[in-house]
Amino acid sequence: MKSLIISAILVLGSTVAMAQMASPDQRQAEHEQERASGIHDQVDVIAGPTVQQVTNRSAVLTWQTNKVAATRVNYGLDPNNLYQHAYLPGGSTEHQVALRNLRPHTTYYFLVENTYGQNRLTGTFTTQ
Predict the structure, then answer these.
(1) Model confidence over 69-100: pLDDT tens digits?
(2) Cβ pair 36, 28 in contact under 8 A
(3) For 43, which of 7, 31, 35, 120 is 20 to 30 Å away at the CA?
């Protein structure tokens, strides 16, 4: 499974994440992951995902899609056991979810799902 690694810059105790448009390699990785998950839709992630406002106990994950899509994320300490969930009802092209109950100085894995619970893309981040 391919992952998109999310990097953040630590500045004066707060994390500033740099928003980037998805590169051709990232879009290819997303398409490969979608095919592997059986996703056959016209939704593409066009920016992000970006991890922002990272603290020792929480983070905010944002991304944009080209069409209205679900805002669903699973996350946890083991990429094979993502036991925590963040979800916003409805659909959007601007996605933002708070990831809570995190441990300090810990690497987390996340998985952005489509409406049917299929894996759209994955990534990692580390809390402060």
Answers:
(1) 889 999 999 999 999 999 888 889 999 999 99
(2) no
(3) 7
